[in-house]
Amino acid sequence: MKNTKTQKVWFITGASRGFGLEISKAVLAAGDKLVGTVRSKPEDLKAQLGNHPDLAVVVMDVTNEEQVRKAAAEAIEVFGRIDILVNNAGYGLLAGVEEGTAAEVKQNYEVNVFGTLNVTRAILPYMRTQGAGHVINVSSIGGLSGFTGWGIYGSTKFAIEGITEAMAKELAPLGIHATVVAPGFFRTEFLDEASLTRTSNEIADYAATVGEMRTAMTHANKKQPGDPAKLAQAFIKLGHTEKPPVHLPLGSDTLARFREKTAAFEQEITAWHDVIVGTDHDDVTA
């Protein structure tokens, strides 16, 4: 018998593949309820998850605000509440900053940033009414540190990091938590053509930087160090903890990269300390 007092209702975007599918499997295996969103063919996700009785699949595109609001209302109608929102839907753009066209950059932001905001705005009113809830936004190792060839995509994840930090402060008095999860490189379909956009514009002067990254990512596909099933279990633990962190980097590669960045940042601060503090007004005491 399930303990209905601890059974949680999850709302996961982009549930049909990659992290979304792995987390969805783990949610149902843990005895929780799941609302999984897909852009089309809901019957496919239902079949993938064994037509589970605790599963509801809704069709929505995160960039379509009307669809998102309807999906949130449908989730409430089916399960009565939403305890955990996982903003997972998104895609990568591999390009030098100069190489990305205006249309390619805008679309990446439309899905990764504005789509996340659309879903968050649709779900939070229900969580505020409940006086409880947990928003989990999926960022990336590229949202903690810049990578050659990933500047545009990484910037969308830097935005998610900042948005979540602010949300955590705004929502805490309302009994709602916010966490941003930054996975490293995991063996999902992220580097497949269906999930990763490579800009059509390639500038020869970047062959030794962005070009090398394109080649490296081709060879790295399905050889990434992270295990998606273990990531999914980390999400289950995160969703069921009483005091979740604001930041949760996942993967030893993410942790190493972040520590390298902060160490380099500290060195720069030390070298430029006098310039940094020297810009204050004379009447400001350090």
What's the quick description here?
This is SDR family NAD(P)-dependent oxidoreductase. The chain has 286 residues and is α/β, with parallel strands linked by helices.
Give a verbal description of the structure:
The protein has helices at 18-29, 42-48, 65-79, 102-130, 151-171, 207-220, 228-240, 252-271, 273-277, and strands spanning 9-12, 33-38, 55-59, 84-87, 92-94, 133-138, 176-183, 196-198, 247-250. The longest helix is centred in the middle third of the chain and has 29 residues, at 102-130. The model is unreliable at 1-5 (pLDDT under 50). It has 286 residues and is an alpha/beta fold. Pfam families: adh_short. This is SDR family NAD(P)-dependent oxidoreductase. Belongs to the short-chain dehydrogenases/reductases (SDR) family.
Shape: globular
Instruction: State the name of the first-level CATH class.
Output: Alpha Beta
Number of helical elements: 9
The CATH homologous superfamily is termed NAD(P)-binding Rossmann-like Domain
Q: How large, in whole angstroms, is the Cα Rg?
A: 20 Å
The helical percent reads 40-55%
Output the strand order for the largest sheet. Answer: 3-2-1-4-6-7-9
Low-pLDDT runs of 5+ residues are 1-5
